[in-house]
Amino acid sequence: MNFILDSENVLAYLARHQLANFDRQTTSLTRLNAKNFNILVSSPDRQPLLVKQGTSDANGQQSDELFTEWQLQQLIDRHSTLSELRDFMPRTLYVDRENSIVVNHFWETYDDLQAYYDDRQEYDPDIAIEIGHKIGLVHRLTYDRSWQELLETTLGQPRNPAQRVVQHLHNLHSGIFGVVPIECCQFYKLYQQYPSLAAAVDRLAQNHQACCLAHNDLKLNNLLIHHLETPPTSRIRTIDWERARWGDPAADLGNLINSYLQLWLENLVVSNELSLQESLQLAIVPLSSLQPVLLALVQSYRQTFPAIFVDRPDYLSQVLQHAGLSLIRRIEVIIETDLTFDNRGIAMLQVAKQLLCNPMA
Q: 169: closest CA among 338, 335, 359?
């Protein structure tokens, strides 16, 4: 897709629409890695702006996902019962629907949580406590069927992540061998060798229970943490609500747990001389260092949103199953982008199988 804005004309665009007048001599323009074409515009004397440009599908049709954050922001601003969510979510400054452009304020004093953990290699349960509370708050405040029609009308129809996996992995054909390298086909062979795994994914799809606002892409690099010693009221913020829908909260919490598990599984020591169990135990980020964080996350979430555990006695089990489902989707992303499926991928699949088939074991 040909994007309208680039480093040559973005400052003129911002000035023309009376958003900001940046001095070209002192302004820094940075292309950020994202599914959209994002440009960070920063200057010593102004609040930075993030300019997002949407992409098109194969037919040249522009997606409306780019505007979901803005639509959600408007909805929150109109309903006082959701006012507690304002500081937790992005703030949109300008929307250009004709050209698929959105301009957001950029939080320069925040780092994404993935980078924060990678840099410090420290896993503070207090951070997880705040995250669990904030995510629980999003789910609790919209846990009422009266929100369903409004959210579906505003943001679009619900999505069932397990159903998408079912449609893809349960309908494989020989053409897959011409799309991915032969070593990657091992993943599809292993998946089909475990009937209990396929059955667990199928049950999860059938038990999908949309009942509140869901982020639908909750992971560590979509969470921001304030990096100064004296943070504002909200130390944790979220970004990229472009897939937000009326959805199943178990999928949100499961996605986040999976994101923490990735800190462990993507840092395994893999070798043909090591067994799977030895690789898991020798990980650079051991699971034992993450267990207190995961426990704090779930406990904080439960304290904030206890009703879901009463109404759905198997809720925690479904959360863990969704974590396993997210692992499978992560394996597929690695196959699609890196064209590889190695011992690390096999370890991920084994953990996913455990979470999906025996979540409470």
A: 335
Read off the pLDDT of residues 208-247 as tens digits, 9 standing for 90 and up: 999 999 999 999 999 999 987 666 667 899 999 999 999 9
Task: Render 213-279 in DSSP notation, one character per residue.
Answer: EE-S---GGGEEEE-SSS--S-SEEE---TT-EEE-HHHHHHHHHHHHHHHHHTT----TTS-HHHH
pLDDT value at residue 270: 76
What tokens does 124 get? 């503070």
Cα dihedral sign, 89-31-21-3 = negative
156: left (phi over 0), alpha (psi -120 to 50) or beta: left
Q: pTM for this one?
A: 0.91
Give the residues across from 223 on adjacent strands.
Answer: 238
Helix axes of 185-193 and 315-338: crossing angle, nearest 10 degrees: 150
Tokens encoding 261 = 């598990």
What CA–CA distance (Å, rounded) separates 45 from 119?
Answer: 28
Maximum Cα–Cα distance for the chain, whole Å?
62
